């Protein structure tokens, strides 16, 4: 129900009723009445509270539904007609980044698309797209994890990003599921207390050993601005750049 969902998100954001009221520009009394179900919010009020809580579009839709309203933002599948423009833009970015690796990821780090260099790096072909997860490749024992020379750095960085994803989307989101799976893998528990090393970092250095040679990279992340679709909001393009250092 909406009142419980609102209270859970407010608590997760570390906000009091007063904090939320000030951010949403409503009275504390009104927030209290909504949480205690003495007042039913309008769709406009639901969206105002969701904005004050800095919720992603997917979670804003969920808030609207819980309050008895229809979703107001798209929630398309990657392969749907609605995502054609986003797919086309992603394809152009992947091609433009060649011959260096680049990946398209969803919110939970599932690999939706990749250029040939990225597929070669993970030792796969296009048949795996949509079926393999980058976090699983990095954390689970196997070819990719074994090839990462500075695995602890990469793992710490991804843990930081996953924590941020869980903060944004909630512990029961797909991101929460992926993070819990990563935490079960060998060596991860020793990294679980590292929370500040990557805070504010822009670039991730990566040393990758394959075919008898070590290549060095740094990564950048690109997202689509001002989307009105939950899927489009969550898409990132991960690009690997040669690191001569």
Overview of the structural elements:
It contains 12 helices and 5 strands. With 245 residues, the protein is an alpha+beta fold. It folds into 2 domains: 2-66, 434 Repressor (Amino-terminal Domain); 81-242, Beta-Lactamase (2-Layer Sandwich), CATH 3.30.450. The protein has a 5-stranded antiparallel sheet, with helices on both faces. Helix 10 packs antiparallel against helix 11 (174-183). The radius of gyration is 20 Å and the shape is elongated. The model has no long low-confidence stretch (mean pLDDT 93).
Number of domains: 2
Average pLDDT, rounded to a whole number, is 93
Sheet with most strands: strand arrangement: 2-1-5-4-3
* N to C succession of SSEs: HHHHHHEEHHHHHEEHE
- Report the CATH C-level class of the largest domain: Alpha Beta
InterPro entries: Cro/C1-type_HTH, Lambda_DNA-bd_dom_sf, MLTR_LBD, PAS-like_dom_sf
Protein name: Helix-turn-helix domain-containing protein
Pfam families: HTH_3 (PF01381), MLTR_LBD (PF17765)
Organism: Devosia oryziradicis
């Amino acid at each position: 129900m909406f009142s419980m969902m609102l209270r859970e998100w407010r608590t997760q954001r570390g906000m009091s009723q007063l904090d939320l009221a000030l951010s949403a520009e409503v009275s504390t009394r009104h927030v209290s009445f909504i949480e205690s179900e003495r007042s039913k919010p309008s769709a406009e009020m639901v969206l105002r509270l969701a904005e004050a809580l800095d919720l992603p579009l997917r979670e804003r839709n969920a808030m609207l539904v819980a309050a008895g309203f229809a979703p107001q933002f798209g929630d398309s599948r990657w392969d749907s007609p609605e995502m054609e423009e986003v797919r086309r833009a992603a394809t152009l970015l992947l091609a433009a980044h060649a011959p260096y690796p680049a990946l398209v990821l969803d919110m939970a780090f599932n690999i939706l698309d990749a250029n040939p260099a990225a597929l070669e790096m993970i030792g796969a072909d296009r048949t795996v797209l949509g079926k393999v997860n980058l976090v699983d490749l990095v954390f689970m024992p196997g070819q990719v994890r074994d090839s990462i020379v500075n695995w602890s750095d990469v793992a710490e960085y991804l843990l930081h990003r996953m924590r941020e994803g869980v903060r944004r989307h909630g512990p029961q989101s797909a991101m929460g599921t992926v993070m819990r799976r990563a935490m079960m893998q060998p060596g991860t528990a020793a990294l679980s207390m590292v929370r500040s090393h990557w805070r504010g970092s822009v670039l991730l250095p990566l040393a990758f050993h394959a075919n008898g040679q070590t290549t060095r990279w740094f990564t950048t992340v690109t997202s689509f601005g001002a989307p009105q679709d939950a899927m489009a909001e969550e898409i990132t393009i991960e690009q690997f750049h040669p690191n001569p250092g």
